[in-house]
Amino acid sequence: MDSSSNLQPKAKRPFDIHAVRQDFKVLHQQINGKPLVYLDNGASAQKPEVVIQSMVDYYHHNNANVHRGAHTLGDRATTAFEGARDTVKRFLNAAAREEIIWTRGTTEALNLAAFGLGHHLQPGDEIIVSAMEHHANIVPWQMLAERTGAILKVIEISDQGELDVNSYHQLLRERTKIVSVTHVSNVLGTINPIAEVIEAAKKVGAFTVIDGAQAVPHMQVDVQALDCDIYVFSSHKLFGPTGIGVLYGKKTVLNNMPPWQGGGEMIERVSFEKTTYNVLPYKFEAGTPAIAEAVGLAAAIDYLASFDRAAIDAHENALLTQAQTLAADCPWLKIVGTAKHKVPVFSFLMDGLHPSDVGTLLDQQGIAIRTGHHCAMPLMDRFNAPGTARASFAFYNSAEEVTQLFQALEKIHRLFT
Amino acid sequence: MTSTDLFLNNPLGVEVQIDEVLDAFSFLDDWEERYAYIIDLGRKLPAFPEPEKTAENLVHGCQSQVWLIHHIDTDTGKIFLLIESDAMIVRGLAALILCMLNAKTPEQLLQVDIDGIFAKLDLFRHISPTRGNGLRSMLQKITLIASNAKS
Predict the structure, then answer these.
(1) Domain B4-150 part of CATH 3.30.70.100
(2) Which fold, A55-305?
(3) Which residues of B are tagged catalytic?
(4) How do the pLDDT tens digits run along chain A, 417 residues long?
């Protein structure tokens, strides 16, 4: 276990939505003459002031390159940067800090996973993904399949948007080498039973990769309890800065992965005859990393940890329940994704309207949502929809904002009838 | 082949001119009235021939599906346009564009101050390059048709 002082239980800050909203300056503005209601958190979340300030402080006082240090600023930068790695390690409950690899985001992390795990694939080997994956968890595997002659298999989903676990068990076989599934669907909000997915994959000896981009903003994740080989997420959806993300990998798995990008930092010794590579995690971190962004991400994780997780969960669940209750009174609105276990992501269609119409008319009323295919075209095909309108909530959204959303939707509905 | 009649019977840009729209808009107070007007305008789009809904006629960069076809009248040299979309607001904005640009010679068409009209209507954000709804690509496609017809 980690013996660092950060594990000392600290008094948690009470979850007061009005106080929480004060931490996010961006929320307090008018859009088209109306107070901003930001419900596009699934695309990118807002950053609390402490995150922005941590990066400003870093640049004001500590900025230098890391791991080069012949001077004080270099030492400070390295301490802050490696401290951020420790923070992520605790956040995921990883067994060791070397298991945390910085990437540019979830997309790059999944590409690294496909590169690293795909090394030994033979023609006819199989890779399993699900029908609800983001393109970032489809295309890298398709590219790998093309390179190696492996075959991509797809787990079906139900009309409610739940993983068809039976279909998954039928797909698993000896040729299955990799199972890569999202923890939470970015479109449907479905929380997948990934513990079960991982356990079954291990029985056939397949590597497991979990896309946690939409999960980490909404729940505690314990990679040791899950026992997955790789878990990835982005900072910017977790209230941290853009430009940085994380690949967690088990040490044994990472050690067996070949180095990816070549350059500085990832080497032990370079000569024109032979180059030897650095140890984990640096083996996968060529070039100067996103240092200030790592600092910002750590600040975001610390900020989240300052609250009692159960209080945040209760608030988010209340928002989702409120949205579902209000939606039930709108016969002209159809929810896409009605899984039993969901994060507060609310995809919907309105009778006779294209999602882009809904998005435009909500923006007129100060409400920001996402519309379109959400980088999940196969999922849109599955639901035979041109796209959906998606309101995705964060813990800083309020019950009043959910009410405002539905008042605005009523108005749009009236406009068209 | 599309029947030429469909093109020639399009009232937008012929019976319904952009000046009329600008006039009407000046009496509309809030966004609801303006969008209601645009959506109504979209209902005036003539039927778009189903066989022409091809990948080739699709305008790229639109979140909704948008098709655009044209016909050049050999006697007058005028360009006639038909546009279709599965989104109501895009249909309305397409109708607006037809009020500005339909049934014009290439020279007339290329002289229209499209950005200026959108700005006057307070709808410029719909054609700004940052907006992903493809209206800009629709306009680019039309001006390209006009430029090609001119040369």
Answers:
(1) no
(2) Aspartate Aminotransferase; domain 2 (3.40.640)
(3) 62
(4) 444 445 556 789 999 999 999 999 999 999 989 999 999 999 999 999 999 999 999 999 999 999 887 899 999 999 999 999 999 999 999 999 999 999 999 999 999 999 999 988 999 999 999 999 999 999 999 999 999 999 999 999 999 999 999 999 999 999 999 999 999 999 999 999 999 999 999 999 999 999 999 999 999 999 999 999 999 999 999 999 999 999 999 999 999 999 999 998 898 999 999 999 999 999 999 999 999 999 999 999 999 999 999 999 999 999 999 999 999 999 999 999 999 999 999 999 999 899 999 999 999 999 999 998 889 999 999 999 889 999 999 999 999 999 999 999 999 999 877
Nearest-5° Cα angle at A14, A13 to A15: 110
* Distance, CA of B61 to CA of B84 (rounded, Å): 15
Specify the CATH superfamily of domain A12-41+308-416.
Aspartate Aminotransferase, domain 1 (3.90.1150.10)
B90 contacts in A (CB within 8 Å)? 354, 356-357
| Tokens describing residue A314 | 């209760």
Provide the H-helix boundaries in B1-150: 4-8, 18-26, 31-42, 88-101, 106-111, 114-120, 135-150
| C-alpha to C-alpha distance for B21 and B37, rounded to whole angstroms | 9
Establish whether A228 is a catalytic residue.
Answer: no
Contact B43, B81 (CB under 8 A): no
List the domain boundaries for chain A.
Answer: 12-41+308-416, 55-305
Query: From CA A128, how far away is CA A179, in angstroms rounded?
Result: 5
Which tokens in the block code for residue A205?
Answer: 């000896």
- 3-state class of A387 per DSSP? coil
Question: Which residue in the list A36, A286, A330, A375 is annotated as catalytic?
Answer: A375
Chain B contact set for A416 (CB, 8 A): 39, 88
Cβ neighbours, 10 Å, residue A236: 24
Q: Do A356 and B36 touch (CB under 8 A)?
A: no
In angstroms, rounded to a whole number, what is the distance separating the alpha carbons of residues A39 and A344? 10
- φ, ψ of residue A127 to 5 degrees: the values are -120, 130
Size of interface A-B (CB pairs under 8 A): 43
Question: How much is the ipTM here?
Answer: 0.86
For residues A221 and A246, the answer to whether their CB atoms sit within 8 Å is no
The domain locations on chain B are 4-150
**Contact (Cβ atoms closer than 8 angstroms) between residue B24 and residue B37:** yes
Cα–Cα nearest to A360, from B41, B136, B132 = B132
> B14, B103 in Cβ contact below 8 A?
yes
Total Cβ atoms within 10 A of residue B75:
5
